[in-house]
Design a protein that fits this description.
The structure is a homodimer of 220-residue chains.
Chain A: E1 3-6, H1 16-29, H2 36-40, H3 47-58, H4 64-81, H5 91-100, E2 104-108, H6 117-123, E3 131-132, H7 145-154, E4 161-165, H8 168-176, E5 180-184, H9 191-196, E6 201-203, H10 206-211
Helix pairs in contact in A: 1-4
């Protein structure tokens, strides 16, 4: 294996539950209350797919203005709830290890700059590392575009990449990109959900992934 | 089957994600940051087991004063986050149906009065229905005490009871009580997690359970 491609939220930083609750509150404020677990299982999809899925739950279409207002309100509540990003256990050490051992990796996230900058900074991601964000591609997960763009910019083949993600959307997108994948429990999915979506291995968090690199054939 | 025993949070009311985030914030404020997914998988245990599990994650014991302060702060944040309880889809209709058809049921929750009163009110639980709360028994889930107390007060045998719950703690406690159990996805566990913990059937929410009563042999 030549390279790792990491998702960001729920995979390297502990932000999933703040995102869920921020969506739940933004939707409830707008009179569109949806159960927490249904929001949880949609986190990590593209925002457009997410709001369309929400519309289906509600049984009516959302106007572009409603979608825009929801996304803005979600962002405001999220920052109030979680002003500081916290790396998941072992994430900083894993990134440092990959740099020290010249193991190629990139980041591919459904998030956008500037919102993701705080997470990249706290993880110690260097400017030379390929970071593909939502605005760089036409279609987000579970479409494979984010991972394919990351792989191309890193200059490796899809078959040489492992995707590391916490949501089934990462794992489905990885399969469609022709990449192997690794699931992390740190986004709150169950182990079987991740395995069934195609994860070759499931670990608890970046720390366990780090200890298990031998199982993956990515050590030099 | 003679009777149903329902858990409350995550099973009949949509409160799990607010509880998770309230715990995450209360712990972080106290300098004991713990990842969201680890908190999620502990929700529904007794508070004492929960704080002991937290202590193990932190690698040190918590003083009784720390435990008390954490529980109090969790309660404050929870009320701020979620001033109104929302029933899960179909919960009110299911309760109404059970009353209308004289199907015996009770509530057994790790929550306490007066905090749970709002949930009981919004669900239309009548005064004659058996409600066993944390303060009524010595040990909470995954110990079987809550369910056994509920069954005894309803006057039926354990083998005639179905437990309905959203957390593995409900299902483990049901097995120890000698009761069959049904899992609901509305607490955010995966289907396989619930099945492996012993659920005979897994449904999405109370609405799907209601439509499926035929599969359970509880219809008159």
């Amino acid at each position: 294996m030549q390279a790792l491609i990491f998702d960001l939220d729920g995979t390297l930083v502990d932000t999933v539950y703040a995102h869920i609750f921020a969506w739940q509150k933004a939707l409830a404020e707008a009179g569109m209350a949806i159960e927490g677990w249904r929001i949880h299982r949609k986190i990590g999809m593209s925002g457009g797919l997410f709001t369309r899925a929400v519309a289906r739950e509600l049984g009516r279409d959302l106007t572009p203005e409603e979608v825009e207002a929801l996304q803005q309100r979600h962002g405001e509540i999220f920052i109030q709830l979680l002003p500081e990003r916290r790396p998941l256990p072992g994430a900083i050490e894993l990134i440092r290890f990959l740099y020290a051992n010249n193991i190629l990796f990139g980041i591919a996230t459904s998030g956008r700059r500037p919102e993701i900058n705080g997470s990249l900074d706290i993880l110690g991601i260097r400017p030379e590392t390929v970071v593909v964000e939502r605005g760089d591609v036409l279609r987000a997960k579970p479409e494979p575009d984010l991972f394919l763009a990351c792989q191309q910019r890193m200059g490796v083949s899809a078959g040489d990449c492992y995707v590391v993600g916490d949501a089934v959307w990462d794992l489905l997108a990885a399969r469609r990109a022709g990449m192997l994948s690794i699931g992390l429990l740190s986004g709150g999915y169950g182990e079987d959900e991740l395995s069934k979506a195609g994860a070759y291995r499931v670990y608890r968090d970046p720390a366990e992934l780090h200890r298990s690199l031998d199982e993956l054939g990515v050590l030099p």
